[in-house]
Amino acid sequence: MAPSTTSSETVGDRSVRRRDFLRLSLLGATGTGLASFGVATIGFLWPNLRGGFGAQITLPSPAAEVAASIRQERAPLAYPAGRLYVVTWDPASPGADDAYGDDHVVLPSGEGLMALYHKCPHLGCRVPWCQSSQWFECPCHGSKYNRWGEWMGGPAPRGLDRFPTRLDDAGQLVVDTATLLTGPSRTERVLQQEPEGPHCVDL
Ligand code: FES
Questions:
Q1: Domain count along the chain
Q2: Distance 141 CA to ligand 1 centre (A)
Q3: Does 2 lie in the same domain as 82?
Q4: Does pLDDT of 29 surpass 60?
Q5: Which range of residues forms the domain containing residue 40?
Q6: What is the pLDDT of residues 90-121, one digit of tens each?
Q7: Residues paired with residue 175 on neighbouring β-strands, in sequence order
Q8: Looking at the domain assignment, is residue 187 inside a domain?
């Protein structure tokens, strides 16, 4: 009987080893999955400190060149990595300095620069620039904003949100995309700008 006992123990041992192996594999797979989920979640929640959205972003060109290019192209500077547009604004317009002077740059030339979040405050679509009307026009439900991002129509509850800007010692524009400034209310409209041509979005 001794040989048969040995054989039964061997089969039992193998079966236990297989169960242990399967259990360890399952634990390993679950651990790896949770670790990946944790990394992805932390990556989502943790601000990007290396120059993308959520960081202090220094634009590559000097601020005076950014302003000149916006004027020349008659279009804002789009900076997708920061999810923003840079627009010019005029501090000498009635009410403009009171509305925007605290948070947005004025260059030594007297011209202002302002950074607008490209996300529509209605339901979050990215709002493109419409070259013909010289407004921002949201293709999702038709909200429209003048070239300073002030609300002009549609279901959005306010104008485009903004980020504070400053100039660094080298004269580069720095945009703080970690700080969101709520856009102006529907009635806070400083820029008197009619559409300058056909709309891109007719909703
Ligand atoms: S998301 Fe822009 S109008 Fe609705």
A1: 2
A2: 5
A3: no
A4: no
A5: 1-46
A6: 999 999 999 999 999 999 999 999 999 999 99
A7: 57, 165
A8: no
Q: Is residue 121 part of a domain?
A: yes
Residue with tokens 């609300």: 151
Please classify residue 52 by burial: count the beta carbons closer than 10 Å to its beta carbon, then call 0-12 exposed, 13-18 middle and 19+ buried: middle
Span from the CA of 133 to the centroid of ligand 1 (angstroms): 18
169 shares its domain with 73:
yes
Q: How confident is the model over 153-163, as pLDDT tens digits?
A: 999 999 999 99
For ligand 1, residues with CB inside 6 Å are 120, 122-125, 138, 140-143, 154-156
Q: Is residue 193 part of a domain?
A: no
Task: Assess whether 32 and 108 both reside in one domain.
Answer: no
Q: Which atom of ligand 1 is nearest to the CA of 125?
A: 1
Phi, psi of 166 (to 5 degrees): -155, 165
What's the chain's length in residues? 203
- Of the pLDDT bands very low, low, confident and very high (cuts 50, 70, 90), residue 49 is very low
Residue closest by Cα to atom 1 of ligand 1: 123
The two structure tokens encoding residue 135: 């407004």
The SS3 call for residue 32 is helix
